[in-house]
Design goal:
By secondary structure, the chain is an alpha+beta fold. It is 68% helix and 12% strand.
Length: 141
C-alpha cells in the first residue's frame, strides 16, 4: 500500500526536525567543549604567568650548600651557586596555554551566534585574558 501525500509530508517534516535537532546538539556540544578547553588552557597560562610574576621573572633553582669559587683577588672571593633557570619553562607554559586558548577561541568565534550565553561569555573572556597574558609575557619577559 502506497503512503498518502499527507504521510509523506509528515515523514519529511519529522526527518527535517530530526536533522535540525542533531545539528543543534552538535553545536551545543562543540560550544561546551570549546568553552571548557578555553578556560582550562587559559588557567594553564595564568599559572605559568603567575609563577613568572611571583618569581620576578627569575626562577633559578639551585642547591643551597654547593658554592663554587670563581675568582680570588686580594682579600675578595667571588662565590657562585650553580643553578638552573626555569624562567623560560614557566614562560613557555604560559605562552603555550594562552596561545592555545586563543586558537580555540578563534575557531569558536564563528559559532558565537549559536552558543548559549554562558559558553560565549567564557570563550570571549578566555580570549581577552589570553591576549592580555601574552602581552604581559611579551613586554615584561
Amino acid at each position: 500500500m502506497q503512503p498518502t501525500v499527507e504521510e509523506l509530508l509528515v515523514r519529511e517534516s519529522a526527518r527535517k526536525a530530526e536533522v535540525a535537532e542533531q545539528a543543534t546538539a552538535r553545536a551545543r556540544g562543540f560550544s561546551r567543549e570549546a568553552a571548557i578547553a578555553c578556560m582550562v588552557l587559559c588557567m594553564v597560562g595564568l599559572v605559568g604567568l603567575g609563577a613568572c610574576v611571583l618569581g620576578n621573572f627569575d626562577l633559578r633553582v639551585g642547591d643551597g650548600g654547593a658554592y663554587e669559587v670563581t675568582h680570588t683577588g686580594g682579600n675578595n672571593w667571588a662565590l657562585v651557586r650553580p643553578s638552573y633557570d626555569l624562567t623560560t619553562l614557566f614562560a613557555g607554559i604560559g605562552a603555550a596555554g594562552f596561545a592555545s586558548a586563543l586558537i580555540i577561541s578563534g575557531g569558536a568565534l564563528g559559532q558565537l551566534k549559536r552558543m548559549p550565553p554562558g559558553s560565549a561569555y567564557a570563550v570571549g573572556m578566555s580570549a581577552i585574558v589570553s591576549i592580555v597574558g601574552l602581552l604581559v609575557l611579551a613586554i615584561v619577559g
